[in-house]
Specification:
Blueprint (H helix, E strand, L loop, with lengths): L3 H21 L1 H5 L2 H21 L2 H24 L5 H14 L2 H4 L7 H14 L15 H14 L7 H21 L2 H21 L4 H25 L9 H14 L1
Helix pairs in contact: 1-4, 3-4, 8-10, 9-10, 11-12
Length: 258
């Protein structure tokens, strides 16, 4: 791997390139912190895709895109004399030191669970009014549910064992079925949300990432549905012309091939 000097040189090169682009490129010159926001969100999702694909080369590229955005924000901040990349790096360094007193102080911890519990206490000292305050409002609902549960667990608000959590899933399913029978859409939606939340919680307890699990199923569905389309074409047909029974036959054939 590369030396620290080589790494710093590459970072310096990126800073120089951004300085030049900011001065000479019309598109880069007109960007603001606000205009970059949605692009940054898109880049983070592309990074997540690369992680799911387990493609190191693609991961390297997407990490570069995200890093460029961090530097771009810092460049814009320096132009208004609000902050620059040094301030950004110093801020995260100080936060890491403060939140790791078991490394940089005299706090004793025995495992990662105690580290997480200590983090939540430290975040409250930093000014957070609630343990849940650090969960971004704009997070996708499934990820947000996981993070809310994780943070609550960090201060001891959690079930004692997996069986209790699964009992809660069954309880929520029963409550949803009761509202379904009454055909009250508003209450059905509320109970369905409770059911999903309890399933995410159970997944967390048994060590499954619900977001990843759902994405695996999404990809499986895409793969199988595209397989149906391909089989239909091979039979000189179109998926829009298939009966439900024919689609099911193709679906089973794809499953058998897997």
């Amino acid at each position: 791997m590369h030396t620290k000097q080589e790494k710093l040189a590459s970072i310096g090169r990126l800073l120089d390139i951004l300085d030049q682009l900011r001065q000479q490129c019309p598109w880069d010159r007109k960007q603001t912190i606000e205009s970059l926001k949605n692009l940054t969100v898109e880049e983070v999702y592309e990074l997540a895709d690369a992680i799911d694909q387990k493609d190191d080369n693609e991961l390297k590229k997407e990490l570069g895109d995200v890093l460029m955005h961090v530097f771009f924000y810092a460049k814009i901040g320096s132009e208004s004399k609000s902050f620059d990349i040094k301030d950004v790096a110093d801020a995260i360094s100080e936060k890491l030191i403060f939140r790791h007193p078991h490394i940089y102080g005299d706090t004793q911890v025995n495992n990662s669970v105690e580290v997480e519990q200590n983090w939540e206490k430290l975040k409250l000292k930093e000014g957070n009014k609630s343990v849940l305050g650090g969960v971004p409002k704009a997070l996708p609902a499934l990820i947000k549910a996981f993070r809310l549960q994780q943070k609550a667990s960090g201060v001891g608000f959690d079930w004692d064992n997996n069986e209790q959590v699964w009992d809660k899933v069954k309880e929520e399913l029963l409550e949803f079925e009761q509202e379904k029978d009454k055909k009250d859409k508003h209450k059905m939606e509320a109970e369905f949300g409770d059911l999903l939340f309890s399933l995410v919680n159970y997944a967390r307890h048994i060590g499954i990432d619900a977001q990843n699990a759902l994405e695996l199923t999404n990809q499986k569905f895409i793969r199988r549905f595209v397989g149906i389309e391909n089989l239909a074409r091979q039979d000189q047909s179109d998926i829009t012309e298939l009966t439900p029974e024919q689609m099911e036959q193709y679906w089973q054939k794809i499953k058998d091939q897997e």
